[in-house]
Amino acid sequence: MGVHGKILCILMLLLHKSSQQEVFNDGKTLNLPANYKVDWMETLNDEKLISTLTIPGTHDSLALYGGPLAECQAWSLEDQLKAGIRYFDLRVSGLGLVIMHGPVIQWTTLSKVLSTVRTFLTQFSSEVVLLRVKPVSPMKGKVQSLVENMIRKDTDVWVKPSIPKIGEVRGKIVFVQKNSFKLGIILSETDKKGDYKVTKVKDKERKIQQHLEEAASQCRTGSALSLSYSSGTSLGTYMTIFLLPKTLAKEINPWLYEHLAKEFEKNPKPCFGIIAMDFPGFDLIQKVIKFNRPA
Fold first, then answer.
1. Given a cut of 60, is residue 246 above it in pLDDT?
2. How far is it, in rounded angstroms, from Cα 59 to Cα 51?
3. What pLDDT, on the 0 to 100 scale, is given for residue 149?
4. pLDDT tens profile 28-48
5. Does residue 1 form part of some domain?
6. Helix, strand or coil for residue 93?
7. Which end of the chain is more exposed for a tag (fewer CB within 10 A), N or C?
8. Three-class DSSP category at 176
9. What pairs with residue 226 in β-bridges?
10. Does residue 175 contact residue 185 with C-beta atoms inside 8 Å?
11. Residue 106: CATH number of its domain
12. Within a domain: residue 210?
């Protein structure tokens, strides 16, 4: 191949790479585009209910350690916030409110999480950050009272079960509750028990589609804050370690991006509540956010 041919090949590869969407990310470094607007909620109508938004979230948001069996994310909490994530799923133990994933310590605490989120909200006061606390061992029975004591005098948190309007909670942390944690908005999960176990990618895609359809029907009325997961693992199934969180996300995230692109073309556009993802790339997060923008 001549010099001109080699140059052409290089240009084609660069063009192909630049045209690809970043839908999956397992790199530690967040690279934001020039002139990117972090505070995407600023333009939202204050009168809209939180439950009528489409909100990008992460599953096991701070599962950054533990290897392929445990890791579900790559970016730090700060970087996830900057990339547009507004829902965080935290597995919290009663031992110092340490964040866990299964038996793996994630080297941070709920206190540090709240401090990081508050720093972010001080800088971007138009935003709303939703936190789900799921009590886990050790000493999971103490989590509720420990959290209540920690936030008892705070005025920048929402702990009521009623669904607020955006204007009521700008610059605040909104707790969401499910099962054993009873502070904040009640979640309506579309996933059924065991749906996180995945043996076939196509089956998972069908389940996600069904869950998003259910979420869309809830979102239209705003009667419930819907939560759907695109995450999953083959651990605990006959597939054992063949579809662990990162491997599955590499398959699911491109499909989810294309599925949402098709849904966005509908008139009127649907809304989907919270979509909690593993290893989402920047463009996938932005695709979720785009549903909230006026036509």
1. yes
2. 18
3. 95
4. 999 999 999 999 999 999 999
5. no
6. strand
7. C
8. strand
9. 188
10. yes
11. 3.20.20.190
12. yes
What's the sign of the alpha-carbon dihedral 292, 91, 152, 184?
positive
Kindly tell me the number of DSSP H helices and DSSP E strands found in the chain.
8, 10
Site of tokens 């389940």: 207
Nearest Cα to Cα of residue 161 among 130, 182, 181, 190: 182
The total of structural domains in the chain comes to 1
* Residue 275 phi, psi dihedral angles, 5° rounding: -115, 110
The whole-angstrom separation of Cα 290 and Cα 295 is 10
Q: Does residue 3 fall inside a structural domain?
A: no
Residue type for 36, please?
A: Y
Domain containing 222 equals 42-290
Place of tokens 């089956």: 203
The distance from CA 199 to its chain's CA centroid, rounded to whole angstroms, is 22
What the block records as the tokens of 156 is 């920048």
User: In this structure, are residues 56 and 80 in contact, taking their beta carbons and an 8 Å threshold?
Assistant: no
pLDDT score of 172: 98
Distances in Å between the Cα of 175 and the Cα atoms of 87, 161, 166, 218 are 10, 9, 14, 20
**Is residue 20's pLDDT more than 80?**
no
Q: Give the ranges where the chain is alpha helix by DSSP (H).
A: 3-19, 77-83, 110-123, 143-151, 166-169, 201-221, 245-264, 282-290
Q: What is the number of alpha carbons within 13 Å of residue 149 lying toward its C-beta? A: 8
Task: Locate 129 and state its tokens.
Answer: 């950050």
Give the C-alpha distances (Å, rounded to integers) separating 91 from 106, 125, 138, 250.
10, 26, 11, 23
Give the tokens for residue 63.
């599962």
Residue 7 clears pLDDT 80, i.e. is over it: no
> 47 and 163 in contact (C-beta within 8 Å)?
no
pLDDT single digits (tens) 194-236? 888 888 999 999 999 999 999 999 998 888 999 999 998 878 7
**pTM score:** 0.92
